[in-house]
Amino acid sequence: MFKKLNISIKGWIFAAIIFMLSFYFGFIYFHSIGVKTIETTFLFMDFSMYLKELIMAVFFLVIYLLFSLIPSKKFMMIPNLFILMSAGQSLVQFYYTLPRLNILGSTAEFIITLSLLGMSYSFSNVSFEVIDNVSNSKGKNFFEKWINQANNSLLNHWKIISTFILIYVIFISITIITVVFK
Q: Which has the closest alpha carbon to 146: 158, 129, 160?
């Protein structure tokens, strides 16, 4: 289910640096505006939020697939940049929920961070498979081969993609963040 992504050392270092920088700058920003803690509560009945977050997650999947049209894995860092920055910001929110000892809120924020990282992994996995195998796919021209390979890759990885998307949508939709300033 989880296979190793074929990324160069430079790619992994770049992804780690982006994730850590987004965490660092998020922490600096929260500190500069005087955030003391974050209180996380839960609301389960806001169905418009479920739909909005589901559309956003599917939009990111489409962006990843569109970037797989470029036959180079280096360009896949552009959509990864945004999800890794979102994961870093979510990790900052997790950090700021810890002083309130809100175990459920902290767990929800940590699960959101892990689901964003999982979405980044699974979307990259699909896109890399499309980039690697588009020439072996059936079709007359490049675009037809790309569509066939994108369909095959999505069918091969639909379970992990839908799992991470559902976890993200559920947890981001039910959490309400209240910021406590100094």
A: 129
Which structural domain, as residue segments, surrounds residue 158? 9-181
Could you tell me where the beta strands, DSSP code E, fall in 34-174?
35-42
Burial class of residue 93 in the structure, from the number of CB atoms within 10 Å of its CB (0-12 exposed, 13-18 middle, 19+ buried): buried
Q: In this model, does residue 1 exceed pLDDT 70?
A: no
32-53: pLDDT as tens digits: 999 888 888 888 887 899 999 9
Number of domains in the chain: 1
Q: Look at residue 111 and tell me whether its pLDDT is greater than 90.
A: yes
Residue 6: predicted pLDDT: 67
Q: Say if 1 falls within a structural domain.
A: no
Q: Does 4 fall in a domain?
A: no
Q: How many residues does the chain have?
A: 182
pLDDT in tens, 59-96: 999 999 999 999 888 888 899 999 999 999 999 999 99
> Who contacts 129 (Cβ-Cβ below 8 Å, separation ≥6)?
149, 153, 156, 157
Q: Where are the beta strands (DSSP E) in 32-133?
A: 35-42
The answer to whether residue 21 sits within a structural domain is yes
Q: Could you tell me if 182 and 51 are in contact, meaning their C-beta atoms sit under 8 angstroms apart?
A: no
Residue 45 lies in a domain: yes
